[in-house]
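Listing S7. Sequence submitted for prediction.
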Amino acid sequence: MLSVNTNKSAMIALQYLNQTNAQLSETENRVNTGLKVATAKDDGSTFAIAQNMRADVAGLQAVSDSLNRGISTADVALSAGQSISDLLIQMKQKALAATDSSLDTSSKSALNADFQAMLSQINTIVQNANFSGANLIDGTTTPTYSALASADGTNVITITGVDFTASTLLGTLDLTTGSTTALHTVSTAIATVDTALASLSAGSRKFSIQATFVSELSDALTTGIGNLVDADMAKESAHLTALQTKQQLGVQALSIANTAPQIILSLFK
């Protein structure tokens, strides 16, 4: 039936063209964003899952930052401790030299001056062994140090600090009056420092191991998010080309359908 009021062919053509335009808009959005699920409107359940995973990744970044601070704090303490250990070895040498009964008073005084300077240097090293306000070798500021170990904040990794101050390790020593006592005390201090350094090193490794795990876990979650929401660009490119062709054909079909009522004019000539 020919009618000037109702053009069924044009209506059908317009419906299909609108569907094609909607699909084309969706595909263009995927191409522009690189995402097949960019908003909750695209796929509510998948978007919610991806958002939860993004929150976990963000939490793991905070954990990674905390662990890296712990690693740096421990590394500073280890470096300072090694310097103190080296000083103690030199001090032992001075103390041993001072036990030589053939030395005169002037020589012992010279040895003691060097010894006291090294003693003072130990405290200088301790005071400067800070990282971001934390000091693992002063024995008072930070007796323990904790870093986050999980994204929910319930787990932490703790490293125990030590006391490398000169007063704790050596007390008061004077080579001019007690070189033998000084030699024994310094030897004990060397053993104490070396044991403490081994403990600090083990703590630093705990931070490093957990940091590596957190990094790998974050990468895995990020990959999982991509699997959920990323668009297959090769597929979308092919789909875009097909829809563009379909759109052009739809426009032509609608144009043809719109010319149908003009046939009625020929009936009244």
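Caption to Listing S7: primary sequence and predicted structure tokens for the chain studied. The two ends are 19 Å apart (CA to CA). The domain at 69-229 is CATH 1.20.1330.10 (f41 fragment of flagellin, N-terminal domain).
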